[in-house]
Amino acid sequence: MTATHERIVLTYGTFDLFHPGHVQLLKRARDLGSRLVVGLSTDEFNAKKGKQSVMRYEDRKTVLESCRYVDEIFAEEDWSQKLNDARRLGADVFVMGDDWTGKFDFMQEACNVVYLARTEGVSTTEIKASVQGLNRHPVAQAAMQLI
After folding, report:
1. Domain ranges of the chain
2. Residue 25: which of 102, 95, 74 has the closest Cα?
3. Closest CA to 131 of 50, 20, 54, 43
4. 61 included as an active-site residue
5. Is 48 a catalytic residue?
6. Model pTM?
């Protein structure tokens, strides 16, 4: 009997405020292979990108570990590590959201590159903006003073 090759899918992200869009991306990525490996952006790397997460790296990692589509998580600390990670892991497929279309085509040196459509109507940026808007509402400000 011949051993079957495990088809490894690799993706990256911050996965802050984990929401249905993240779940759909991870599910569709996992459907492209037998194992999904996620590079999770560290807080320090997010700071270099000019981003600040609501949730700390350790908490985002804990949430991702509970997702049934994710098989392995490692720290993403720099933009330049992706190609080496793909080679080190033996990745067959590299997946990103279609808002990154074309930006990771160089990964084709190591594996197939797939850009998946974003889930309509949900994004971390929109959730953060919505919460910030609520915090500015006079009723919310008055309630916060009572706490």
Report:
1. 8-146
2. 95
3. 54
4. no
5. no
6. 0.82
CATH of domain 8-146: 3.40.50.620
Among 27, 51, 82, 128, the active-site one is 51
Under 8 Å between Cβ of 6 and 58 = no
Active-site pick, 27, 48, 49, 103: 49
15 Cβ contact partners less than 8 Å away, ≥ 6 residues apart = 22, 38, 40, 60, 63, 64
Token pair, residue 12, equals 């990256």
pLDDT digits (tens, 9 = 90+) for 56-88: 999 999 999 999 999 999 999 999 999 999 999
Distance CA 64, CA 72 (A): 9
CA 71/CA 146 separation, integer angstroms: 44
